[in-house]
Amino acid sequence: MRKLKLTELNRSTIAEYKNIPKLDVVVVLDNLRSAGNVGSFFRTSDALAVKEIILCGISSFPPNKEITKTAIGATESVKWKHEKCIKDAVSALKKQGYQIVGVEQTNHSISLEKYIPDGPLALVFGNEVNGLSDAILSDLDLAVEIPQYGTKHSFNVAVCGGIVLWEVFRKLKL
Q1: Which CATH number do you get for residue 81?
Q2: Which of 27, 75, 136, 151 sits most deeply, having the most CB atoms within 10 A of its CB?
Q3: Inside any domain, residue 130
Q4: Percent of the chain, pLDDT > 90?
Q5: What is the tens place of the pLDDT at every residue in 36-66?
Q6: 33, burial (CB in 10 Å: exposed 0-12, middle 13-18, buried 19+)
Q7: Whole domain around residue 122: which residue ranges?
Q8: CB within 8 A of 95, min separation 6: which ones?
Q9: Is residue 77 situated within a structural domain?
Q10: C-alpha distance from residue 61 to each of 15, 30, 82, 117, 124 (Å)
């Protein structure tokens, strides 16, 4: 066994990537404090061909040195926009036919392993400390949560994003 060289990975150029089919999934970030976490979402979204990222509220947006450090160029490949108000972003997505799925532990959330994604999907991820804002909960079509068995009952939001996006990608692509 040997590691592959970069030249063996057959990576798309940014121009080629922009023309490949995308997963009909939009990532919505609700007031993320850490630009590093935002950059991680860009990198994961690039890897899984997510359609778009919407950065809401206080979430950092490009150009930003900390985002660039973790995104490693994905801010150039992944479509994105910034919206001051998450409710406006979610309302526009609903009008476009997106199912709005919050990633949050609620009294009605379902386990990610049982969730079957269907149709255009907007996944909403919340603040590192407070999770999703209370104002957006009533706009969700449903909430999903990752089963956890430790004492903390939470993941870093970027780790959570990687888990949820991979599971959605796996279920939609297979």
Answers
A1: 3.40.1280.10
A2: 27
A3: yes
A4: 93
A5: 999 999 999 999 999 999 999 999 999 999 9
A6: middle
A7: 24-173
A8: none
A9: yes
A10: 21, 12, 7, 28, 16
Q: Of 90, 103, 85, give the one whose Cα is nearest residue 162.
A: 103
Q: Does residue 16 belong to any structural domain of this protein?
A: no
Domain count, the chain: 1
* Distance of alpha carbon 50 from alpha carbon 169, whole angstroms: 9
The H or E element spanning position 164 is helix 157-173
d(CA 169, CA 48): 7
For the segment 63-88, the average pLDDT, to the nearest whole number, is 96
Q: Please name every residue paired with 125 in a beta bridge, in sequence order, or none if there are none.
A: 29
Pick left, alpha or beta for residue 158 (phi over 0 → left; psi -120 to 50 → alpha; otherwise beta): alpha
What Rg do the C-alpha atoms of the chain give, in angstroms? 16
Q: What is the pLDDT of residue 173?
A: 86
